[in-house]
Amino acid sequence: MAEAALIEPDRLDGTPHPRDTRALYGQSAAEARFLQAYNAGRLHHAWLLTGPKGVGKATLAWRIARFLLTQDESAGAGMFGAALAPESLAVAPEHPVVKRMLAGSESRLFKITRSVNPDTKRMRDVIAVDDVRALGRFLSMSAAEGGRRVVILDAADEMNTQAANALLKMLEEPPKLTTFLLIAHQPAGLLPTIRSRCRELRLATLLPEDMAAALQEAGVEADLDAAAALALSTLSGGSVGAAARMHALEGLVLYGELIAIFESLPKLDRARVMRLSEAFAARGSEQKLDLLLVLLETLLFRLARAGALGAAAELAHPAEPELFARLSPDARVAQSWALLSETLLARARHGRAVNLDPAALILDTFLRIQRSVAEQNAR
């Protein structure tokens, strides 16, 4: 299809498009809540799918869309006998609707995402009002085959004010047999009036076993052992999208390097830091440098948490318990790590924004960490 040649803003790096993802892991509770409402004949016209980025919200939206567009609702949802009530959102892959959805030609489905600005020819940073107005034209037409229509908006919290107001008018007077599926990573940023007109489906972060299965479904190598799957789940916050990107950029290796450097404190292993710095000085390493900063922030957070609340049960590296006990033994030191994280990462991100030399940025960051540890030990 034509859009395959374009960058799709609703597809996370390192994973298939949610339209092409057949299985959904770890979200059976959210699926069950939707199916219960459908079978009871209480299908709300607008659903707000929330939860951390990368846990399957868009995959669930497309799964719901496939289900709704393949149901025979001539008798009305919830009005069939209990024995005939659907027990799953699964749909046969050979169904004509499924094939049309994969080809991008299903006339009863409308997708709203960020679009290309016709003037600049660049992808917009927000969903603009024109993108939502196009939905108005879709809703004004009768479906070619009759029956239900589905609108997927990914992501709703990317709408600008004008787009949000335009959508609100449609939600206030929803067309018959039309279901809106709004995906939101940060629902607090939506207009309260939009949230009030939607029924929320909250998706959970993935457990390690679900993470391993989801990564394989996403095409990540199947050679991950249980410890690696647990580490990716822990470092990514249970987001399969973040975990896939982390795996592709060798995030576990990077985190291991950070752990090794922190193990050398308070006498910083400068040779190791210099090797790490030089690795990020090469052109094309920007994504890995950004990931390094994310992993550093994660490590600092886990250090602070260990001193304040005790080490988390889930390990991202086998050396964490001993390292955390030594570097963050109590709440006082934990507070120092929290304050350091706030100032250190702000400086590092500013350095990235002004294109500071990556090697100098990394070296400066670890020298500041070394000074902080020395000050803590001197107290």
Describe, in plain words, how this protein is organized in 3D.
With 379 residues, the protein is α/β, with parallel strands linked by helices. It has 2 domains: 201 residues, Rossmann fold, CATH 3.40.50.300; 130 residues, Zinc Finger, Delta Prime, domain 3. 50% of the residues lie in helices and 7% in strands. It has 15 helices and 5 strands. A 5-stranded parallel β-sheet has the order 2-3-4-1-5, sandwiched between helices. Strand 3, helix 5 and strand 4 form a beta-alpha-beta unit. The longest helix has 24 residues. The radius of gyration is 24 Å and the shape is elongated. It starts with 27 loop residues before the first helix and ends with a helix. The N terminus is likely disordered.
Q: What is the CATH topology assignment of the largest domain?
A: Rossmann fold
Q: What is the CATH C level class of the largest domain, in words?
A: Alpha Beta
Topology as a string of helices (H) and strands (E): HEHHEHEHEHEHHHHHHHHH
The total strand number stands at 5
For the record, give the distance between the C-alpha atoms at the N and C termini, rounded to a whole number.
Answer: 65 Å
Low-confidence stretches: 1-6, 77-83
Number of domains: 2
The share of residues in helices is 40-55%
| Class from secondary-structure proportions | alpha/beta
Rg from alpha-carbon coordinates = 24 Å
Number of helices: 15
Query: What CATH architecture of the largest domain would you give?
Result: 3-Layer(aba) Sandwich
Strand order across the biggest sheet?
A: 2-3-4-1-5
The largest sheet is: 5 strands, parallel
**Shape annotation:** elongated
